[in-house]
Amino acid sequence: MAVTTAEPEISTRVAPAPEALTDGFHLLIDALKLNGVETIYNVPGIPITDLGRYAQAQGLRVLSFRHEQHAGYAAAAAGFLTKKPGVCMTVSAPGFLNGLTALAHATTNCWPMILISGSSEREIVDLQRGDYEEMDQLAIARPHAKAAYRILHAEDIGLGVARAMRAALTGRPGGVYLDVPGQLLGQVMDAAEGARSLIEVVDPNPASVPSPEAISRALEVLGSAKKPLIILGKGAAHAQADDAVRELVETLGFPYLPMSMAKGLLPDTHPQCSSAARSLVLKESDCVFLIGARLNWLLGHGQGKAWGEKGSKKFVQIDIEPSEMDSNQKISAPLIGDVGSVARALLKEIGGRWEKPSADWTGAVRAKVEANVAKMAPRLKNNNSPMDYQGSLGVIKDLIAENPDVVLVNEGANALDQCRSIVDIHKPRKRLDVGTWGIMGIGMGSAVAAAVETGNQVLAVEGDSAFGFCGMEIETVCRYDLPVCTVIMNNNGIYRGDGENWAGGKDPSTTVFVKGARYDKMIEAFGGVGVTVDNPDALRRAIKEAFASRKPTLINAVIAEDAGKESGNIGNLNPSSVVAQQRYPQARKIK
Ligand code: ADP
Ligand code: TZD
Ligand code: MG
């Protein structure tokens, strides 16, 4: 028996007119719709199969995936792209755990997302009597989410959804878990009363502006810098304050570095973009202005050789999250607020009076950028077969420049690092990748979300290993006939395809896959277009064809086995073994 403190009055009456009733299923759907949810990324099963069906019947777009992790990654990416919580729906225990990885990923990346999971009977779960898919999901979700709630009564659904919406969006965005016991869905209540119980959240993401003192302090620090640098992070891209950010960057006149998912916030071809002089600007700058970017591992915590002399820099930071300040380095001028409001407040205070940094600095940076770009250019034009990363990604660089609205999804190690540095992005939020955790497997979920949320063509550039984490979702891409072109950078393995088993046995090396695998055959099984290419010209033709047709396409791009290096650009993060260097002569060759 359900233990409900306020048994809905209606249930004691005899045969109420069904049209005067609503139930948990429909209240949940209505609450989501009322709060602007249009799409649910879903995997059906007990107890939420009908919830998905009814949601579809009620006009929501419900996309079913083959595995919850990818439905979850789609919801996370949707949250980043739209600034509204992406919603993922799963079954209990195992489905919930599969989705939880994605919820934790959204939280880690500061993106709004809601994971709704069905759960088993509370009375049985709490006494650990061994229910179908028994698990105390709420307790497990809590440490991995920004917030976690459970709804027990139909009349609380409005409240629960409002709590989830607000928690996902307010302040630093994050992932919220909403636990929906199966019994809740079937509870009935009076329809009019049900409608009254729903809450549309008002202003869940309020503008927040720092004090005038904080603004003047920041301008003082920025104005006294000789060699200033801006770092734009994905928080700035997510903020959707593109015009204000651009105006601020151009008014200040500092060289800037975009973090990977901030690429395109200003075009990578912008004269102030200093990506191609990254080492120089990190080392030499005397003041770094972080805009929606954290000084975490991706920036070496703001210290070490890459950052030049210790203590040589001041930091100014815009972030919505006060506790981010001083998390790695002293922040001389914290600007706590949302990127758009802070940028506009800075511009207002500047009021057209700003002295840009000297040409000694900006000119030196520009010269370095131009020299490095010129050095790289011929390598990007090579027509080697099998391909290397430069030749293949040179083609993709051209095609993205010609089609700047294409959303680029990117994962892998070399396939990621090389693509990030070679392929320019020209518009905001047109690049989705592995994010703060460097997760493999975000590719297909992100691609589905990008296609669904933007309607644009998507190009997913995937390492062959990375694709393996999510490859079955190629069926999802085909089923919904999405304009997704997936390029598998197929080097027969993780980092490289030429690893050996050092014991000399029959098993391949731990980092090597089946040689010459034909990933293009996979998509053909689901009615999509599959192509294998082994040279840049053929790759160009195949991608152009995919863009023109907008058909689900998978291009198996044959990359030389020895083209990559161990762990891409982050091999330094691998622990090293003194013993191995002596014991295995082959270990010395790993690079
Ligand atoms: P990157 O990996 O690109 O450097 P991070 O994910 O490390 O970016 O940092 C993003 C930061 O942006 C987070 O600290 C987050 O709190 C912040 N942020 C997110 N949205 C906003 C916003 N609208 N305004 C200000 N800061 C934001
Ligand atoms: N598992 C998860 C979920 N995330 C990870 N980042 C890893 C494992 C470890 N890992 C990387 O960091 S990159 C990578 C793995 C398995 C695959 C690299 O191989 P690839 O790319 O084929 O995708 P390249 O082009 O061969 O380097
Ligand atoms: Mg590979």
Summarize the structure.
The chain is α/β, with parallel strands linked by helices. Helices cover 38% and strands 16% of the residues. The protein contains 23 helices and 19 strands.
Characterize the structure shown.
- The structure is a single chain.
- It is built from 23 helices and 19 strands.
- The protein has 591 residues and is α/β, with parallel strands linked by helices.
- Strands 3-2-4-5-7-6 form a six-stranded parallel beta sheet, sandwiched between helices.
- The longest helix is centred in the middle third of the chain and has 22 residues, at 359-380.
- Helix 1 (24-34) packs parallel to helix 7 (157-169).
- Ligand TZD binds next to helix 17 and helix 19.
- Tally of DSSP β-strands: 19
Structural class: alpha/beta
The number of helical segments is 23
Name the overall outline.
globular
* Physical arrangement of strands within the biggest beta sheet: 3-2-4-5-7-6
Mean pLDDT: 96
Quote the beta fraction: 15-25%
How is the biggest beta sheet arranged? Answer: 6 strands, parallel
- Distance from N terminus to C terminus (CA atoms, Å) equals 63 Å
Detail the poorly predicted runs: none
Ligands bound, unique? adenosine-5'-diphosphate, ligand TZD, magnesium ion
- Gyration radius, to the nearest Å? 26 Å
